[in-house]
Design brief:
Largest sheet: 5 strands, antiparallel
Strand content: 25-35%
CATH class of the largest domain: Mainly Beta
Helix content: 40-55%
CATH superfamily of the largest domain: Jelly Rolls
Number of domains: 2
CATH topology of the largest domain: Jelly Rolls
Structural class: alpha+beta
Oligomer: single chain
Number of strands: 8
Order of helices and strands: HHEEEEHEHHHEHHEE
C-alpha cells in the first residue's frame, strides 16, 4: 500500500525518506506535550487519537485508518509546537513515518501532497465537529452505541474485545457509568456482554 499512496516524484521522495515500522496494539506513538519528529501515515491497522482533559480523563477524537494521517500532528510538527493529542495504536499496525521537515517542504513542491493534507484537514474537521456535537447534544448511551459501531466497522466484526474501562476512557466518562449503560443496552437487546467482550446485535 505504501507504493499506492502517491505517484511519480512524490512517491520517490516517500521511498527515500519515509520509514516503515510495525507497532504492537496499545503502543503510544505520540504523547501530549512532546515534540513531533515525524508524521504517521497508516499503511495497515489503525490508530486512535485521544485528548486528555484537565481532570485526567481522556476522550476519543478520531481514528486514523489505512491511507490516512494525523492532521493535528502535521500542523503541530511544521510549526515546531508540542503535541496537543495522544496517538495510540488500536491494533497491530504498519506505519509510514515521514520526517516533519520533509512533510513541510513537500507542501511547496508537490500539489498532490498539499491536496492530501487539505483533504485530511477537511475530514478531521468534520469528525471533530461530530465529537463536539455528541458531547453537547447526545446522551451517553447514543455515544456509546456509536463508538461500538465504529469499532465493529474498524475491526470488521461484531464481537469486540474491549473493557468497560477502555470505553470509558474513549468517551471521557467513568467505568461505573459505562457499565451501567452497557447493562441497560443489553436489557434492550442492543448488545450481549461477557468478560471483556461485547457482541453487537
Amino acid at each position: 500500500m505504501k507504493d499506492q499512496l502517491f505517484h511519480s516524484l512524490l512517491n520517490e521522495e516517500v521511498q527515500n525518506f519515509g520509514q516503515v515500522k510495525t507497532f504492537a496494539s496499545e503502543t503510544v506513538i505520540l504523547q501530549e506535550s512532546s515534540y513531533i519528529k515525524s508524521i504517521p501515515i497508516v499503511i495497515k491497522g489503525s490508530i486512535r487519537v485521544m485528548r486528555t482533559e484537565e481532570d485526567g480523563r481522556e476522550i476519543l477524537l478520531y481514528y486514523i485508518k489505512p491511507g490516512e494521517s494525523c492532521i493535528m500532528s502535521f500542523l503541530g510538527g511544521i510549526h515546531n509546537e508540542t503535541s496537543k493529542i495522544k496517538a495510540v495504536v488500536e491494533e497491530e499496525s504498519e506505519i509510514l513515518l515521514i520526517p516533519v521537515e520533509k512533510a513541510s517542504l513537500w507542501i511547496k513542491e508537490f500539489p498532490e501532497w498539499t491536496d492530501f493534507i487539505f483533504r485530511l484537514y477537511h475530514k478531521r474537521f468534520e469528525e471533530l465537529l461530530s465529537v463536539v456535537n455528541a458531547i453537547a447534544f447526545r446522551k451517553l448511551d447514543t455515544r456509546l452505541l456509536h463508538l461500538l459501531r465504529q469499532k465493529a466497522e474498524l475491526f470488521q466484526t461484531h464481537e469486540l474485545i474491549v473493557t468497560h474501562q477502555q470505553l470509558a476512557d474513549e468517551l471521557g466518562s467513568t467505568r461505573e457509568v459505562v457499565s451501567r449503560v452497557i447493562k441497560q443496552m443489553e436489557n434492550e437487546g442492543l448488545v450481549r456482554i461477557s468478560r471483556n467482550k461485547i457482541f453487537l446485535m
